[in-house]
Amino acid sequence: MSNIPVDLKYTKSHEWARSNEDGSLTIGISDNAQDQLGDMVFIEAPDIGQTVAAEEACAVVESVKAASDVYSPVAGEIIAVNEKLADSPETVNQDPYGEGWIFRLKPADAGSVNALLDAEAYQALIESEAH
Amino acid sequence: MPFIPHTETDVREMLAAIGVPDIEDLFDEIPAGLRTGVLNGVPQGLNEQEVSRLMRERAETDGRPLCFTGAGAYEHHIPAAVWEITTRGEFYSAYTPYQAEASQGTLQLIYEFQTMMAGLTGMEVSNASLYDGASGLAEAVLMAVRANRKSKSRRILIPTTVHPAYRRTAHTIVKNQAIELVDVPYSSAGGHTLPDSLAPFEGEDITALVVQQPNFFGILEEVDALTDWAHRQGALVIAVANPVSLALLNPPGSWGAAGADIACGEGQPLGVPLSSGGPYFGYLCCRQALVRQMPGRIVGRTIDRDGRVGYTLTLQAREQHIRRSKATSNICTNQGLLVTAATIYMALLGAEGLRRVAQACHANTRKLVAALTASDCVEPVFDRPYFHEAALRFALPLENVLRPLHAHNLLPGYPLAGEYPELGEALLVCATETRTDADIETYATHLNRVIESQTSAGCPVKPKMA
Questions:
Q1: Residues spanned by CATH 3.40.640.10 within chain B?
Q2: Which of A40, A42, A63 to mutate to test binding with chain B, by most B CBs within 10 Å of its CB?
Q3: CA distance B208 to B88
């Protein structure tokens, strides 16, 4: 059973988004996603200052099995990337919702995060994909 | 004998199973305008006897001329052992087998090749080869665009001293991907790219600068100044280098303060015969930091669970069977057999042997230039140092000189006027280690006779400057 914290929002492409106090969002991939992909070997982060559209591919997580795009859940500007992942990509496997975050962005529209899936809807999504 | 194993019955049964009346219906998705239709230009098939004869006759039209032509493909001595070993059953395969790790010998050979190429170019990583030098440059350009994430312009500076065929090939491959290749002019005195000629691009967003060393004219470029300029602009540096020359010259990894970022080129000089133009192979090396943007396959060395050394394809997540449309390229190891020959060639010669080949090429070309320019009608076009090729300008129409020389079974060089009309009656000549003093003498003697017969008293056109 994968871990789906209730305080986060999710996407159909298996990213999570956490709303920070300053209005920014922290983005990572879900526990389910890291489990499916397997051991991470490389994380390609976006550029700070880069503007991204909703659902635009802006990072790559490469595991021993595959390289997958990470899509931005909402439109906005990249304001930080997790530089620790360059040397320890396995953090994404070990702590996907904490130290394994991938980037932070300032959303173009503060309300856009509300349109994302909540934990319950995401749970339903991965159950339907498992069948 | 048809090479499709399915019988008419097989085909009918398969179509019936998927409910499609005709095989043509499977291609419905392709718009009619894009389909070639009937290929009228393809002649009837020939049997083996007819093909053998046709190919033999065509090969014979090449003759066995005394070759003083380079321009990208070079006649070198290939020790007999090279192809004797290469064509052994254990190696005789066009590319990496599908179950690659079951063929440890093939993988070890590619690993050794990569190690040798990384050593020659002074770069950290090499891939398992590309198709040829020209498409290698195109792959390097695409790779630079992916790798240089600070640059948004997709503009690549390519000096016109880079091989014209390479420039055309790169253009063909990248033009529909919104990548702009910008020409940089060369110095008419030195035949090289003046670092000052880059000044108009100062401060602009440039993705990469290509530098060929030695350049198409055989001339040595100011690689350190060019590399440092590019890096100051935030541009990557793509080196194009003849691998034999690297036995003598500073390798791309040592150019300027930080070294080139990508090195590529034609592998033919390493044990591959001229063979009427192919097949050859390309090489591509880069800095470790760029390896995930590198096209092609990479073999790595590891240990198995019993601690024994083993070889494996590595970093495959970049490749098409995993990354699909976002793969770094569709390059495989199709030129594997040529790579096998090159690896054996380099192993047989060793670093010292390759250095002596390079030294002999340089020395022979100097002798050739001296012998040919002894005529009042021939002079060097450029005044800069060269490796094993040099451009010579003739004071009479080149066409009238070349025809009789061909008739004397000579390949006298590559005429430059087609691609560089501004150089006038210029010929690019080359003498590798395979040319003897007697060969050079033969060329000079025939040339002098031709010149004499065309000009009543030596050369009336222009007295030579002292």
A1: 80-344
A2: A42
A3: 42
Q: Which domain holds residue A98?
A: 9-109
Per the CB < 8 Å rule, is A47 touching B150? yes
Q: What ipTM did this prediction achieve?
A: 0.78
Q: In this structure, is residue A130 part of a structural domain?
A: no
Interface touch B292/A62, C-beta < 8 Å: yes
Rounded to whole angstroms, the Cα distance separating A21 from A19 reads 7
Average pLDDT over residues B212-236: 98
Number of H helices, E strands in chain B: 11, 15
Helix axes B164-174, B133-147, angle to 10 degrees: 50
Say if A128 falls within a structural domain. no
The verdict on residue A59 lying in a domain is yes
Which among B458, B449, B298, B428 has a CA at the least distance from the CA of B368? B428
Q: Spell out the alpha helix ranges (H) of A1-131.
A: 31-37, 91-94, 119-130
Assign residue A45 the CATH number of its domain. Answer: 2.40.50.100
In order, the DSSP letters of B295-311 are -S-EEEEEE-TTS-EEE
Q: How many helices (H) and strands (E) would you count in chain A?
A: 3, 9
Q: Which of A42, A44, A66 sits opposite B322 (nearest CB)?
A: A66
Model confidence over B275-327: pLDDT tens digits?
A: 989 999 999 999 999 999 999 999 999 999 999 999 999 988 888 888 878 88
Say yes or no: domain B80-344 is CATH 3.40.640.10: yes
Which of the residue ranges A94-98, B162-166, B424-428, B451-455 would you say has the lowest mean pLDDT? B451-455
Number of domains in chain A: 1
In A, which residues are within 8 Å of B292 by CB distance? Answer: 42, 44, 62
Mean pLDDT value across residues B111-140:
97
Whether A2 is in a domain gets the answer no
Look at the alpha carbons of B20, B21, B25, B26 in this order and tell me if their dihedral is positive or negative: positive
Give me B384's structure tokens. 């800069």
> What CATH number labels B350-454?
3.90.1150.10
Which residues belong to CATH 3.90.1150.10 in chain B? 350-454
